[in-house]
Write a structure and sequence with these properties.
It is found in: Cell membrane. Pfam families: FecCD. The chain has a single domain, classed as ABC transporter involved in vitamin B12 uptake, BtuC (Orthogonal Bundle), CATH 1.10.3470. It is mostly helical and 317 residues long. 47% of the residues are buried. The protein starts with a helix and ends with a helix. 77% of the residues lie in helices and 0% in strands. The radius of gyration is 20 Å and the shape is globular. Helix 4 packs parallel to helix 6.
Length: 317
């Protein structure tokens, strides 16, 4: 039942994103455009502009929420999020470097993905060292690496060309205006969710601690490696698609656990639907609230996430 409600919310958010804009369209106009019988203006607005952007927002939100849920299981910390291990900062370094050299949008996205993968590899290698790693060691390593990347980002903003600063800042704030095809991110989101569903029971046991998981026959180290790799891939695709968008991967899994419990077989698909819906609605608000100008979607998620997080923190006390 909760998943059906979230599915309805996801479809409603996508429909609202397609319908609302500089030209408001009715449901009949949308249906005609989707079936190819509408006017050329409506078909262009929906098929070339609004639908790809809405799907990119949904995919990005779903990727971040699922990655956040996995990171919270891996670190056994309900306040962990996908960016806590420096993946966002590493992607930012790659993207901004490509922007400084004047590379195209595709190369900027590719550089961001490479930066995220390099950061993930660096954090895990340093945290592992010559022995096994612990969640605390992984977390501290990620924080240090993230601080180093952030310093490099600040340096590039200080010395970068003035004409490129607006685009660099918008990327750092999370902007879907220049997102490319949403299909790679959607494909990764669907594939990862299908892959994780059979592992729901093992994730539930692992969330209770490594000793209990090992006693129940769960291969702890392999599971932890797998979770970290999958969360890194999800975050890398999300950052590549929309830049750095905060709070989605932190707030959504936390709220779902308060409402639905700790069963990962429900939390993971629910996080994909709820995270996608949140970012789709946030992006719709970002491009309409001060139209014809647009805000970065990351600004809206931060404005929503900060008071929500404070409310959850007060409630937990």
């Amino acid at each position: 039942m909760p998943l059906l409600l979230l599915l309805a919310l996801a479809l409603s958010s996508l429909l609202l994103a397609i319908r609302v804009g500089s030209v408001t369209m009715s449901s009949s106009d949308i249906w005609a455009a989707l079936t190819g019988s509408g006017s050329s203006l409506h078909q262009t607005l929906i098929m070339d502009l609004r639908l790809p952007r809405a799907l990119a927002a949904f995919a990005t939100g779903g990727l971040l929420a699922v990655a956040g849920a996995l990171m919270q299981v891996l670190l056994r910390n309900p306040l962990a999020d996908p960016y806590i291990l420096g993946l966002s900062s590493g992607a930012a370094v790659g993207a901004l470097m490509a922007m400084i050299f004047g590379l195209g949008a595709a190369l900027v996205s590719g550089s961001a993905f490479i930066g995220a993968v390099v950061s993930a590899t660096l954090v895990f290698s340093l945290a592992n060292g010559r022995g096994s790693w612990t969640p605390t060691r992984l977390l501290l390593t990620g924080v240090i690496i993230s601080s180093g990347w952030s310093a490099l980002v600040t340096f590039m903003l200080a010395v970068g060309p003035t004409d490129k600063l607006p685009g660099m800042l918008y990327w750092l704030m999370g902007d879907l205006a220049y997102s490319r095809s949403p299909w790679p991110a959607l494909t990764v989101l669907l594939a990862i969710c299908l892959l994780l569903m059979p592992l729901g029971r093992s994730l539930n046991v692992l969330a209770r601690g490594p000793l209990q998981a090992a006693a129940l026959g769960v291969p702890v180290k392999q599971m932890e490696w797998g979770i970290y790799i999958i969360a890194s891939i999800l975050t890398a695709f999300a950052v590549t698609t929309a830049g750095s968008i905060g709070f989605v991967g932190l707030i959504i899994p936390h709220m779902l656990r308060l409402v639905l419990g700790n069963d990962q077989r429900i939390i993971l698909p629910a996080a994909a639907l709820a995270g996608g819906s949140l970012l789709t609605l946030a992006d719709t608000l970002a491009r309409t609230i001060i139209a014809p100008q647009q805000l970065p979607a990351g600004v809206i998620t931060a404005m929503i996430g900060v008071p929500t997080f404070l409310y959850l923190l007060r409630r937990s006390q």
